[in-house]
Amino acid sequence: xxxxxxxxxxxxxxxxxxxxxxxxxxxxxxxxxxxxxxxxxxxxxxxxxxxxxxxxxxxxxxxxxxxxxxxxxxxxxxxxxxxxxxxxxxxxxxxxxxxxxxxxxxxxxxxxxxxxxxxxxxxxxxxxxxxxxxxxxxxxxxxxxxxxxxxxxxxxxxxxxxxxxxxxxxxxxxxxxxxxxxxx
Length: 184
Description:
Layout: H1 2-8, H2 27-36, H3 59-71, H4 91-94, H5 101-104, H6 112-137, E1 144-148, E2 154-158, H7 173-176
Antiparallel strand pairs: 1-2
């Protein structure tokens, strides 16, 4: 008989309290309704001070907030590639100078590979500065020719290279990197 009782019993459906139609007209009725509500064990949400942002809202601060959102520089979650020993040295200080970085600082990386890597980073910074200087000499306006047609409308045309036929080429890179200069 005990086995039959276990088999024949169906699981009771848990009834959920429906208080959508309950109306409390005063505080006592509200307390009676709230006594029927079961207590759920919910952990309170913990807020860190970094997550909380307080702003004074005014017209000037709104404009400032918009500018901050546009100019906000996000830090990437990648590891810093500069060797640990050289973290204190700013590459921006070493790159514009024509002297080797070894002569400018007393800090040295521990391994030879780190030294080579840091040297290449400095060299890359120097090449970046040289490229920026070169781009200042050749602005984009040198590629454009503006002409008026018969109707009086100004047309802009981009010049193409006489050597390679590519747009925005000043015959510097294409003459430097010709196929004839290299062997197989």
